[in-house]
Amino acid sequence: MMDSNSHTALKMNAYPETKISSTATGGVPQSLLIDLDDTLCENNIYFERAIAQFISFLNHKEMSLEQVREVINHTERESILSHGYGLHSFAHSLVRTFEKLSVEPITPALHETIRGFAHQIADHPLEIITDVPETLAYLAERHHLILMTKGSLTEQSAKIEGSGLKEFFVAVEIVAEKNPAAYRQIVDKYALLPEVTWMIGNSPRSDINPALAAGLHAVFVPHDQTWVLEHEELVPAPSPAQKLLIVKGFAELRSHF
Ligand SMILES: [Mg+2]
Fold this sequence. Notes:
CATH architecture of the largest domain: 3-Layer(aba) Sandwich
Shape: elongated
Helix content: 40-55%
Number of helices: 9
Largest sheet: 6 strands, parallel
Bound molecules: magnesium ion
CATH class of the largest domain: Alpha Beta
């Protein structure tokens, strides 16, 4: 398990000057904050599978699949406020949805089955997205990479440890929510210069808009299976000096950094 001390113990000068080659900003190494889920490794597809299993198990006689899905989305928003992100919160959402929609009362056995749909996600082997390790290796030689993910500390730490990608990062930050305040905190903690700091990720709501609001640049790496609760319109940066890049895939970062 990671604590804040282990973060500060990581060296920001882990990469010797000699390894840093020229970049778009005239050789200045930049700080790249990089998202984990659905940017570096698959995540939402497993949740979508679990939801599909749950909906077919619920087998609602009057509501359409879309209507049930709406109830799940709404319940997930409520669970995030009370339970945060992660599998425990997701399992809670499925159980709550069942309680709301099923005519039969929930029994301990039903409860276990429904929780099982959620918790099986943890058993799935981690799938790293195409070109990610090679691209991280390239970027890590030139810049300071900080992994920035939100969610359960235990679950995200386990994922990072198992990903084989940790070596590319000078620091790892697991936060409860990615809002402008969280980005400002990271900027302060590592004394980052906003004019050479970027957030890179798949979520307009968590990666792009709040990073721009905090004065950073951003790179949007769209993922066609992004969680519906992460959808949001991209909001223009508050300052014309801030850049927003949109790339087709993670490998394209090599042409910008
Ligand atoms: Mg993500």
